[in-house]
């Protein structure tokens, strides 16, 4: 006898043992009580804890995306120590100009990065919400057929969609009588 163990859920107690459904396999079976043992509680608790942590991380990322999408860029003003005073010597003015240039360049890159992150977060938010809603419509539940499948008819061509089927059969057209208060049987009775 093989000493294999599979995770299963006990569905019912029977006179001969337990009726179990195997997790992940989908099949059910009646097993001997000697072949059933409890799943280690520590392993189950660790699995539940890992699932909670994964859910918390997912929600934190979602909150961060939403927060970044709603916040606006705050432009920083030039610090007072970098303002050029008329009384400053030329070498100090040159040094301050370099620092002002670096400050403005850094602020511009931060603004560009913020705009890029905002677009990226908007796209990520769109991607996460896009898959949740199912499309309801005329062709939504229909399976797509490959254009390369071979046709059912021996006269059909491979790669030509709908080949070998022939023309659509329509009903034979007949004249339709519109009667105001009766049926066609009432018309026949009067004659």
Task: Give a quick summary of the entry.
By secondary structure, the protein is mainly α. It has helices spanning 41-70, 90-130, 184-190, and strands at residues 8-14, 17-22, 28-31.
Q: What do these coordinates show?
A:
The structure is a single chain. The chain has 191 residues and is mostly helical. Among the domains are: 8-37, no CATH class; 44-130. 41% of the residues lie in helices and 9% in strands. The protein has three helices and three strands; from the N terminus they run βββααα. The chain has helices at 41-70, 90-130, 184-190, and strands at 8-14, 17-22, 28-31. Strands 1-2-3 form a three-stranded antiparallel beta sheet, with no helix packed on it. A hairpin with a 5-residue loop joins strand 2 (17-22) and strand 3. Helix 1 packs across helix 2 (90-130). The radius of gyration is 37 Å and the shape is flat. 1% of the residues are buried. The model has no long low-confidence stretch (mean pLDDT 78). Its main location: nucleus. It is found in: Nucleus. Residues 144-156 have a biased composition (Basic and acidic residues).
Which key phrases capture this entry?
three-stranded antiparallel β-sheet; flat; 3 strands; single chain; mainly alpha; 3 helices; 191 residues
Tell me how many strands there are.
Answer: 3
Strand order of the largest sheet: 1-2-3
In helices, the fraction of residues equals 40-55%
The span between the termini is: 88 Å
Question: Can you count the helices?
Answer: 3
Characterize the biggest β-sheet.
3 strands, antiparallel
Q: What's the alpha carbon Rg, rounded to whole Å?
A: 37 Å
Low-pLDDT regions: none
Shape: flat
Query: Strand content of the residues, in percent?
Result: 5-15%
């Amino acid at each position: 006898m093989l000493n294999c163990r599979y995770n299963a859920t006990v569905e019912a107690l029977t006179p001969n043992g337990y009726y179990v459904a195997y997790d992940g396999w989908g099949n059910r079976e009646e097993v001997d009580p000697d072949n059933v043992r409890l799943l280690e509680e520590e392993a189950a608790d660790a699995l539940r804890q890992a699932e909670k942590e994964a859910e918390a991380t997912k929600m934190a990322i979602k909150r961060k995306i939403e927060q970044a999408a709603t916040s606006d860029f705050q432009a920083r003003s030039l610090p007072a120590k970098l303002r050029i005073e008329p009384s400053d010597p030329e070498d100090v003015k040159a040094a301050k100009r370099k620092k002002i240039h670096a400050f403005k360049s850094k602020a511009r890159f931060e603004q560009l990065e913020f705009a890029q992150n905002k677009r990226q977060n908007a796209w990520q938010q769109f991607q996460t919400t896009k898959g949740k809603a199912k499309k309801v419509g005329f062709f939504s539940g229909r399976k797509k057929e490959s254009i390369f499948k071979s046709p059912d008819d021996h006269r059909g061509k491979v790669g030509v969609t709908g080949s070998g089927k022939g023309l659509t059969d329509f009903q034979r057209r007949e004249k339709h009588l519109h009667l105001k208060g009766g049926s066609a049987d009432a018309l026949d009775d009067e004659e």
